[in-house]
Design brief:
alpha/beta, two-stranded antiparallel ribbon, eight-stranded mixed β-sheet, Glutaconate Coenzyme A-transferase
């Protein structure tokens, strides 16, 4: 397969997310990039993937196109099960959701996420520096899905040793059985997909570690953009660039209206250097990426 040379940060995140998803698994899908990744997986290697949406649809084939929200009528079309929000989350609490896709503004070394506020908690909760979108269903997904995939833009402001607020639990303080001891059911974070790398978690310490770097990145460049020390997995590899066909599918078949995934460097000048394979994120593009991750 021919590698693309004009993919965007969002497109490689989508491709990475899709490849993590396995056929015949149940994935709890939030609005935005998780939807695009799930649909790409269904169209390629995982036709039996079973998406679940917060509004209550389970197992829609998504043949009518990309939903624009978790309550879009497209999520209900030909679904195998229709109920409501409570039933969707009850299903995760009973252990029937293999993967949950969530995002946030901050993440720490144990995969805990903040999508609530920037400021001093608890004193500054009523008047934070920045009020973020909040949990939506992300905290429930983090608590109950068997595994979670986190999507976070990569820079030191977002990868912090201490979060300003914990919205969605990861491995908490990293201690043995920390999740079990507070009543959380799922096993915790499985992967973190950023604009620079794919990260996983050490089985013993539950600390975040570098698993794969994206093209043009190194272990050193990923560490330099992180506000805490990352562990490094043995034999770190480079994640392959999206193929021309994968990029075409995202742009033409899955999200032709750019609802969530914006166009390639050669097709837009909005915050992208046309000489770079990986675009940098301007504040506008960063806000767009963050908004596309909320459930």
């Amino acid at each position: 397969m021919t590698a693309s040379t004009d993919y965007t940060a969002q497109e490689i995140i989508v491709v990475a997310g899709s490849k993590i998803l396995e056929d015949r698994k149940v994935v709890f899908v939030g609005t935005g990039l998780p939807m695009v990744a799930s649909l790409l997986a269904k169209l390629t290697h995982a036709p039996g993937l079973i998406p679940v949406f917060e509004a209550g649809a389970v197992g829609p084939p998504l043949k009518v196109g990309l939903p624009l929200s978790v309550g879009d009528s497209k999520t209900f079309t030909s679904a195998t099960y229709l109920k409501g929000l409570n039933a969707a989350f009850e299903m995760t609490q009973r252990g029937f959701a293999d993967i949950g896709f969530i995002g946030g503004a901050e993440v720490d070394m144990y995969g805990n996420l903040n999508s609530t506020m920037i400021g001093n908690f608890p004193d500054g909760y009523q008047k934070p520096k920045v009020r973020l979108p909040g949990s939506g269903g992300a905290s429930d997904m983090a608590a109950s899905c068997e595994r979670t995939i986190l999507i976070v833009p990569h820079d030191k402001r977002k990868f912090n040793k201490k979060l300003q607020y914990v919205t969605s639990p990861g491995f908490l303080d990293g201690s043995p059985n920390a999740r079990y001891n507070v009543g959380l059911q799922g096993k915790g974070p499985y992967r973190v997909i950023t604009t620079k790398a794919i990260l996983d978690f050490d089985e013993e310490t539950h600390r975040m570690r570098i698993l794969q770097v994206f093209p043009g990145e190194t272990v050193e460049s990923v560490q330099a953009a992180t506000g805490f020390e990352l562990l490094v997995a043995p034999n770190v590899s480079t994640f392959p660039a999206p193929t021309v066909e994968e990029v075409r599918m995202i742009r033409e078949d899955i999200d032709p209206t750019q609802a969530f995934v914006k166009r390639s460097p050669k097709q837009t000048s909005d915050g992208i250097d046309s000489n770079d394979q990986m675009p940098f994120l301007t504040p506008k593009n960063e806000r767009m990426l963050h908004a596309s991750q909320q459930s």
